[in-house]
Amino acid sequence: MFKANGANAETNKDDKYYKQLKNDLDARVKQLEKLPAMHDVSLKETLKNEGINRRDFMKWATAACAMLSLPAGFVPTVAKAAELADRLPIIWLHMAECTGCSESLLRSANPSIDSLIFDHISLEYHETLMAASGWQAEQNLENAMHKYKGKYVLMVEGGIPMNNQGEFLTIGGHGKKGVEIANAAANDAAAIFAIGTCSSFGGVQAAAPNPTGAVSMSEATGKNVINVPGCPPSEKNIVGTLLHFLLYGTLPALDAYNRPQWAYKRRVHDQCERRGHFDAGEFVEQYGDHGAKEGYCLYKVGCKGPYTFNNCSKNKFNQGTSWPIQAGFGCMGCSEPDFWDTMGVVGEPLKDRLYHTTFGGLGADATADKIGMGVLTLTAVGIAAHATIAAIKPPKE
User: Fold this and answer.
1) Residue range 207-253, pLDDT digits in tens
2) Domains of the chain as residue ranges with CATH
3) In terms of DSSP H, where are the helices of the chain?
4) Spatial distance between the Cα atoms of 384 and 344, rounded to a whole number of angstroms
5) pLDDT in tens, 166-206
6) What span, in angstroms and rounded, lies between the C-alpha atoms of 284 and 297?
7) Rounded Cα–Cα distance for residues 172 and 308 (Å)
């Protein structure tokens, strides 16, 4: 009886929380509705022109709700917020990078709803997409920063070189340094998103010996930055983080590396479709062997999934077609800080290494089980145990 009453109390508490949250988000949507639309064509018309009907859009909104851990009753609110995405001005800067993060979001033969919503936002500055160049592009950036001062969301792609007073990244006819541009834009931004591992943690530019002194957006500016890492990150993680800010007007819950918890809370290993083979001690020993054909665990050929936090297996890439492990290649740990240096040799496991992070080996998962001084998670111990079991198992006929 006591347990039942306790359960009812918890249910009532949750009901009150979600009721208040729904009221708050509905109020936020009404605020957005009062702001001027920055596009002549509505999102509804855009979707219709691309052959996407209302039912498909509502399915997307339902998935977005689940992704953001919101109940089904919030679907209409999420859908409405997405339709009002053009009320939020965006400035997107390119620093030292390959533009892969932008390309992964924008370059598709059949645009997804995520990419269409991104197209629908008020993108005031994006060097890859805009027609202006040279001094006109520089003026466009200055105008956007002045016009939307304190209101725009700054999205940054690429690491920021700091050595030689930042001269390794010099942009435009006026010879402005990347770090100068980044700081100027960050000063008046309502929120800052680091898109991709380069702007989140420095990326390949920051790999040892890091001759340009490349650093993350947060380190270069000293600002509070939401990191959306990945090489590249999923389009859903980019749009989902933007949608959260659009809905709430605040930053999402973040992990120790300032990544949104709704996207980076769990290990790739724990959500992997090959996890059952790991538990059974069934591993690919080398590419092309029997285990590879059977879809066995890729840990022994270098998969870094046990050390990586991301939702790749849920979102996938190329419009949800596949992701590296499904395609038969192990995770490289690309959403983790300094993965080029810390994740070891591609194609080799980390089973005999102590995987240290910038937090002294504690990693980003505050709830993970630790042993010793915390340099190895329980998962790593499990890997060693399973590797031993696999070594003594008789070969399959």
Assistant:
1) 999 999 999 999 999 999 999 999 999 988 998 999 999 899 888 99
2) 2-263 (3.40.50.700), 266-392 (4.10.480.10)
3) 2-34, 43-49, 54-67, 75-83, 100-106, 113-120, 134-147, 163-166, 178-187, 197-201, 217-221, 235-248, 261-264, 275-279, 290-294, 312-315, 324-327, 339-342, 378-392
4) 17
5) 999 998 878 899 999 999 999 999 999 999 999 999 999 99
6) 6
7) 37
